[in-house]
Task: inverse folding
C-alpha cells in the first residue's frame, strides 16, 4: 500500500530523527506515494528541508503551516508536536479524512479509546484503533519490550525501575544548555583547581544529576515516573501491575539507561532469561561477562541494549538488568514509523 | 586527651579533605598535641603542605616518606592509602605502638577481627577494636545511616539500591580526565551540530554513564556493588540482610546519589519515616514537596541529604528515598575524623 504521510512538528528533534529514518527505510517496508509532507509552527513554515531517499532522491520539502486544511489528503499523520497542538489537530486531522494519526505526545496515551503501542510489545492493540494510536513515553518504550517478553515467560510479580535519562529527552534546547553549562563549569574548574563542585545554574544539567523530570504529583512521584507506571500497566494489559519508578536526569546527550529489578512469579535460570530476551528482534543482549551497554554505545542505534543480567538473591525469583536505548529512536521516531508499517501490514490504515 | 595524629596518603584527594577538616575542627572536639604528621610515597616526600588551624596557625608540614619507622610515637594514624600500602603498613604501625589505625581503604573492612564503622550508624563497634577500625566504602557510608535508623524503627525486609556515583570516587586523576574528555566532546558538538553522541574514549566518563565500578565478580556483580551488600550486612549486624545493588558512574565531580527502595517488616506512615530520618543528626531531610537534593547541593557539606521520600505501593510497607552526600567527606575523610573523636570519647585510644 502506497501512503501519503505527513509529519507534524517536523522541525523538532524527533521530527528530524523521523526524516532521517524515512530516508533510510526501504520502499518494500514502507512505500510512500510522495515525499513526506512536513508541518510546523507558522515560524517554521516556508523553511526548506532536504530529503533524499531511494524513491525520492535529492528532494526539497517546504515546511507548511500546521493548519487543519493543509492536512487534507493525507493517509497517515505522525505527530511529534507538543500536547496542545496534538490535542487540537489530531481530531481535526481525522475529521478531514486522515486514516491514522500516530501521536508521540502524551496527550492521548491514557485515553481508554486510544491504543498505546510499542511495536514489539503489544502490536495487537493496533487493531482496535479508531483513528489515533499513541506511542509511549521514551522511558517506558525501552522498558516495556523486555518486560513484555519476560512477563510472557515467567510472569512478573514486581518491578523497581531507576532511570538515568539523557537531556535530549527535554529537547534540543536542553542539549545546547547542557553544553553551555558544561563549558562554564570547566572554566571554573581550570581556574580554581581546588573546586570540587561548581554551580552555574539553578536547574543545572552539567556535572549534576536531577531527580525530577516533569512536575511533581500529589503522591510525591513526578509525572515522568507516573507515566512509566501507568503506561506499562496499559501496554501489558495489567492494570494492577506492581511497579515503582524513580526517574533521574543525567548529563548525557542521547541515550536513556534504566536499571531494572524484576521479581518473577515462577522460577527460572539465567540462561532462560537470556534466551527469552534474545528471542525479541528488538533487543540486543550483552551477555559477555565483561561487557555492558552504555549511552555512547546505544545512541544512534535501533536496538534496546540489555546487559548486566544477574540473579538478585534478595528476593525469590529476582533479577537485575541494565537497559540502554536511543530515546529519540525507540522512544519516539523509530516506534512511530514501525507503528505505521505494522498498521499497514495489519490492514489498519 | 591530646593526640599525636598522622595521615597516610596525605597528598591524595581524601588526604586533602582530611587536612581541610582538621583545620576547621575545634580543639574542644579533637585536641591535637602537634600538627598532623603527613606521610606519602617517596615521590611526595619532602613536599611542604600548609596547615592553618586555631591551635596551629600558619604551619607548614613536610610530607615524610611512609616508612614504618617514621610512624613511631603516633597515637593515631588515619590511612587513606591504597590497599597494598595499607595492608603492609597498618600492622607495622600497631607493632610500633600506634594505638589506633583508622583505615579508609577496603583491605580490612570484611576482616572479622576488625570493626567496620560509620559514625552515626554503629558507633558501638568501635569498642571491640584491636588496633584497627575500618571505614566503609563511600557508597555504603551514605546508605547505612538512613538504613540503620529506619531498620531500628520499622525493621528492614529488603533493600534495592541504585547508585549515581561521581568520578571523584575514582580519584583526582579521574576528575581531570572527566574534564578533559568533556572538552573534547564539546568541541565535536560545536563543530558538528548534528552529532548526538560523541565518543572520545574507551572508558568514557564524559556525557555517558558507566554501569561498572571496580571489577566484575563471578556472580555478575561488580566489586563495588558487592561492597555495598557485604558492608551493609556487617554494619547492621544482619548477615542475612536482603539487599541488592547496581552501582553506576555518572559524570559528576563530587557527590554520590542513591535511589533506595526499602520494604519494611512493619507498617508505617510517611510522617513517621520523616521523623525517624530527622532524628539522626547526620541526616538532613528535604521534605518540602517541591525540593530535592542534588550533587551540587551536597558537595562540600557534611550531612547526608535525604529527599523524595514517598510511598511505594508496589509492595507492602515500601518506600522510595533519594540520598545524596559528599562522597569524599561522609564517605571517607569526615567519617575518619569522627571515628577518631568517637574512639577518644569512648576511651578506646
Result:
Amino acid at each position: 500500500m502506497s501512503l501519503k504521510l505527513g509529519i507534524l512538528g517536523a522541525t523538532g528533534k524527533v521530527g528530524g530523527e523521523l526524516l532521517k529514518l524515512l530516508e533510510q527505510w526501504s520502499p518494500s517496508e514502507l512505500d510512500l506515494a510522495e515525499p513526506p509532507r512536513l508541518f510546523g509552527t507558522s515560524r517554521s513554515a516556508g523553511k526548506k528541508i532536504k530529503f533524499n531517499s531511494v524513491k525520492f532522491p535529492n528532494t526539497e520539502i517546504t515546511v507548511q503551516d500546521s493548519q487543519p486544511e493543509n492536512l487534507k489528503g493525507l493517509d497517515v499523520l505522525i505527530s511529534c508536536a507538543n500536547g496542545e497542538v496534538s490535542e487540537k489537530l489530531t481530531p481535526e486531522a481525522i475529521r478531514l479524512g486522515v486514516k491514522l494519526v500516530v501521536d508521540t505526545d502524551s496527550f492521548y496515551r491514557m485515553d481508554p479509546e486510544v491504543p498505546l503501542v510499542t511495536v514489539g510489545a503489544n502490536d495487537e492493540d493496533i487493531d482496535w484503533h479508531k483513528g489515533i494510536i499513541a506511542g509511549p513515553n521514551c522511558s517506558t518504550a525501552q522498558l516495556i519490550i523486555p518486560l513484555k517478553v519476560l512477563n510472557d515467560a515467567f510472569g512478573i510479580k514486581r518491578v523497581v525501575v531507576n532511570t538515568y535519562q539523557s537531556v535530549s529527552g527535554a529537547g534540543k534546547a536542553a542539549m545546547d544548555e547542557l553544553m553551555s553549562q558544561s563549558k562554564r563549569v570547566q572554566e571554573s574548574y581550570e581556574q580554581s583547581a581546588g573546586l570540587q563542585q561548581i554551580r552555574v545554574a539553578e536547574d543545572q544539567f552539567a556535572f549534576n544529576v536531577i531527580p525530577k523530570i516533569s512536575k511533581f504529583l500529589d503522591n510525591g512521584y513526578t509525572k515522568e515516573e507516573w507515566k512509566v507506571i501507568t503506561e506499562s500497566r496499559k501496554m501489558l494489559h495489567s492494570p494492577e501491575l506492581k511497579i515503582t519508578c524513580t526517574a533521574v536526569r543525567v548529563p548525557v546527550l542521547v541515550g536513556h539507561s534504566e536499571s531494572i529489578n524484576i521479581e518473577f512469579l515462577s522460577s527460572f535460570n539465567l540462561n532462560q532469561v537470556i534466551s527469552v530476551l534474545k528471542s525479541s528482534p528488538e533487543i540486543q543482549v550483552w551477555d559477555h561477562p565483561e561487557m555492558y551497554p552504555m549511552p555512547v554505545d546505544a545512541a544512534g542505534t535501533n536496538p534496546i541494549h540489555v546487559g548486566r543480567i544477574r540473579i538478585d538473591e534478595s528476593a525469590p525469583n529476582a533479577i537485575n538488568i541494565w537497559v540502554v536505548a536511543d530515546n529519540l529512536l525507540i522512544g519516539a521516531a523509530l516506534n512511530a514509523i514501525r507503528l505505521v508499517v505494522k498498521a499497514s501490514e495489519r490492514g489498519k490504515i
